[in-house]
Amino acid sequence: MSLAVIETHPVQYHAPVYRELQKTWGIPVTAIYGSDFSVAGYRDREFGATFAWDSDLLSGYSSIFLDRVVDGGAVSDTEVSAHGLRDALRRAKPNAVMVLGYNPRFHRQAFFAARRAGHPILFRGETTDHARSRGVVKSWVRENALRWLYQRGDRLLYVGQRSLEHYQRHGCPANKLVFSPYCVDVTPFQWDESARVRFRAATRSTLGVRGDKKVIVFSGKLSVRKGPDLLLRAIKQLPPETRDQMVVVFLGSGELQDALHSLARQSPAVSAHFLGFQNQTQLSPYYHAADLLALPSVVSETWGLVVNDALHHGLPCLVSTAVGCAPDLVEPGVTGEVFATGSESSLADAIVKALPLMDRAEVRAKCREKVGGYTIEKAAEGIARAFSAVVPRT
Exposure of 104 by Cβ count < 10 A (0-12 exposed, 13-18 middle, 19+ buried)? Predict the structure, then answer.
């Protein structure tokens, strides 16, 4: 009894789920990857940096690579080829296949390859209707294509509330829907209260941040779609006595970096630190040093896994309505605040509303409780349930 997972490359948020499936649920997993660029190292266009993930992406389950970077293979998910996929499926001999979405094109090819081979299909993608606006014609084509695809999936795994609503709106029957939450692996983190005691004061001291300052961290790509400039503009709108207490820490790199430096210096100036790309094992000190995380995305934020990261550390979050995980993880006045997408004034109001949430043990406990249902264990459990429903056990 085995499961084949087909995706473009090893992903730091997915590999731990495959290990958990095999270890806890006894379901052997073979991941068929189009390329190994996330292991070998690659240049991320939005980060504007070259890196390889520093977490273990390959142990605890089997893997097959259709191509490798050293052999001239793809160095981005849009370049990955499905050449050799049918042979890889024959080698893996799975009882079911899980496909991780319909974009990029490789995932659509994976769906059709599994279907042609006669395997039951589990579909687990970042499905949502909110992430991007489309014209009438494109919407009609997309709607009909997705209805066709979902009808032919044996089980559809939803990762959160908006994902569930997406499937329901497309007429998917309830008996095909299984919850497998989107999640992060906390293994690279030092996220508990004892780690906070170790890191908070020391990290703030390294940054030159006094104890009475309020630190807002932005973690991610400094790109237009993530809206990091909106955070600086919102802080500039705050009353001077509040603004002067704010410090922004940017963890990431990207196309807006120079513009953000300039914007922070413009009057009224905002105290800002630009620390560049940080791999997962480097994040905990900064999350513990912070009082809030901000994710002001304006488009294409189907989930927002940095929110999971922050909540595990007990850090409340400010997210725009464009962030997919908002209905699941951000409870206004409890684990953060939600503000109108693209609105500087709405974000400024959210910052003020969130001031009472900062640096409070009971709030940190609520944050960890809220994200407690969105774990590697819960994600694997959902996949195991879906697998068992389509593969009769002998």
Answer: middle
- Asked if residues 123 and 150 have their Cβ atoms less than 8 Å apart, the reply is yes
How does strand 42-44 pair with strand 49-51?
Answer: antiparallel
d(CA 279, CA 51) in angstroms, rounded, equals: 9
Q: 356, exposed or middle or buried, with CB in 10 Å at 0-12, 13-18, 19+?
A: exposed
What does DSSP assign to residue 269?
Answer: P
What are 379's two structure tokens? Answer: 């994600």
What one-letter code names the amino acid at 145? A
User: Residue 394: its pLDDT value, please?
Assistant: 47
Distance in angstroms (rounded) separating the CA atoms of residues 164 and 158 = 5
Query: Would you give the end-to-end CA distance of the chain in angstroms?
Result: 9
Closest CA to 219 of 152, 134, 284: 284
CA 182/CA 184 separation, integer angstroms: 7
Cβ atoms of 361 and 335 closer than 8 Å? no
Alpha carbons 226 and 292: distance in angstroms, whole number: 17
- The answer to whether the CB of 76 falls within 8 A of the CB of 47 is no
Whether the predicted model's global pTM rises above the 0.85 cut = yes
Q: What is the mean pLDDT of each run of 10 residues along the chain (394 residues)?
A: 96 96 97 94 64 82 96 91 96 97 92 96 89 71 90 97 95 97 96 97 97 96 97 98 98 96 98 94 97 96 96 98 97 98 98 98 98 97 97 72
**Residue 249 · residue 216 · CB < 8 Å:** yes
- Rg of the Cα atoms in the chain: 21
Name the CA dihedral angle for 180, 181, 185, 191, rounded to a multiple of 10 degrees: -140
Rounded to whole angstroms, the Cα distance separating 73 from 65 reads 10
Cα dihedral 128, 296, 103, 141 sign: positive
Q: How many angstroms separate the Cα of 190 from the Cα of each of 185, 309, 336?
A: 11, 11, 21
